[in-house]
Amino acid sequence: MSIVKINVLTVPEEQRETLEQRFAARAGAVESSDGFEWFELLRPVEGTDTYLVYTRWRTEEDFQRWMAGRGQAAHGGGGAHGGEGAPGDRPKPAATDATLWSFEVVQQTGPRQD
Fold this sequence. Notes:
Strand content: 25-35%
């Protein structure tokens, strides 16, 4: 079964709109990657400043290949919590902290089809 990667981002209130705009601006950056299955950006609704970036992949190897290529640019040199362009002109990161959680999907279900 698939693997899930959840990037846990601490985002101050004043940076929420910036984070969401940066993710919207890079829509399509992961969808064509081999092994990619799903993406969701989850906004907190109460009591926390933590966003969750949920991605599902066919295999760990597929995720690692993406991270070594396009994902490296998105996470290290630009994107939602980095910036665009040369290191000297990058905007301030929207997130103040990031942690990556990894899971294997052992069970899944969807809506019943009657």
